[in-house]
């Protein structure tokens, strides 16, 4: 039997409403179990943007949304395209050909996929190690944590707005987006793991380190560029 979650206190409930009554069930916290079942999805989206924990609980536990893999693909392609479109080959000529053409974009997508994959794996591993030192929540599941990370990570798609607003400084714009993404991830993690912001930051620390390590891998120049460099050195 499927169990739902009160969006206010996180307690599991059997039903969100009684079939013989239009009223939503109340839980031991005295609040409605899930007010969002009567709301338009746009309202839920707005509350997700505003980092409301009840909205995250509704989406992760009580809604019928299952297309997290689609969100993952959109996030992967969107972040890859942002990096590809904002890359300045004049500052890094050795990496220029890696970003040019369809093959360059495919390599970049794979690189971004590895970064996100290492991030999720490190967060899950760090969380499992954390449960060895503290009490594990009864309803915690690794799949819910992965879904929460996908939802929180989608905030990085706001970085695509910098491509539309060409006058905006890419570095400053992405720094703000990165900060907001961190807040989204902290909120999503705290909902699944039932922890505060401090505990959530500790749980995400391993993932952030892994993501930073993989995302800063050095792209080696191609063989043709190596030959050109050798020839230039000989001539000089």
Overall description:
The protein contains nine helices and two strands. A hairpin with a 6-residue loop joins strand 1 (4-5) and strand 2. With 236 residues, it is mainly alpha-helical. The longest helix has 31 residues, at 101-131. 60% of the residues lie in helices and 2% in strands. It is globular, with a radius of gyration of 22 Å. Mediator of sterol homeostasis involved in sterol uptake, trafficking and distribution into membranes. The chain crosses the membrane at residues 104-125, 145-166, 172-192, 199-220. Belongs to the ARV1 family. It comes from Fopius arisanus. It is found in: Endoplasmic reticulum membrane.
Topology:
Elements: E1 4-5, E2 12-13, H1 41-49, H2 53-62, H3 68-86, H4 101-131, H5 142-153, H6 161-164, H7 170-193, H8 197-215, H9 223-235
Antiparallel strand pairs: 1-2
Any idea what the shape is?
globular
Structural class, please?
mainly alpha
> How far is it from the N-terminal to the C-terminal residue, by CA?
76 Å
Radius of gyration: 22 Å
GO biological process, one term: sphingolipid metabolic process
InterPro entries: Arv1
Pfam family, one: Arv1
Membrane topology: Multi-pass membrane protein
Distinctive features:
mainly alpha, two-stranded antiparallel ribbon, 236 residues
Brief sketch in words of this structure:
The protein contains 9 helices and 2 strands. The protein has 236 residues and is mainly α. A two-stranded antiparallel sheet has the order 1-2.
